[in-house]
Amino acid sequence: MTHEDLTALAYLVPATVGALVMKAGSGRLAVFSFCVLPGTLIHELLHLLVGAMTGAKPVSMSLFPTRQPDGRIALGSVTFENLRWFNAAPTCLAPLLGLPVVWLIAKARVAEAWSFEQWDLLIWAGLSAQLLSCWPSSTDLVQSLRSWPLYLAGVSLAMMHYL
Predict the structure, then answer these.
(1) What sign results for the dihedral spanned by CA atoms 135, 105, 6, 4?
(2) Chain centroid to CA 8: how far?
(3) Which domain holds residue 143?
(4) How many structural domains is the chain composed of?
(5) Mean confidence (pLDDT) of the chain
(6) Which of 3, 8, 61, 86 lies in disulfide reach of 107, CB 3.0 to 4.6 Å?
(7) pTM for the whole structure
(8) Is the pLDDT of residue 66 over 90?
(9) DSSP code of 62?
């Protein structure tokens, strides 16, 4: 790991702490929803864009929190018309693409001699929201299982390569 990588990791510490503080305060739905709105927007846009590129045919998107039948709160949603075995995994796991974005922002910020600036507070707030929102939800994970043939093919290829 290079010095620049370690510096980028150190830069992400305040954002990670911010994400943990936001998560701890998630009982206050209105405040939590507002704080994570930038991350929710990116999460849902990634579903929308990857779904459109893979033929899942997105038909609607919402950024308004709703209570699910099981009592959980969904901060946003994208509805698809054509979620099938071949596009479910990439579409449902698309929020993971937010992780490299967080890393690239941190690396860009510390690329030269870094010193704290007021903008860092805003950047950390945005990164905190993104760190909370870049994980697929439990619904996303369950829906991604429609792609079990792709998972099976991936495991088979890995076994052929490594065994």
Answers:
(1) positive
(2) 19
(3) 3-162
(4) 1
(5) 92
(6) 8
(7) 0.87
(8) no
(9) E
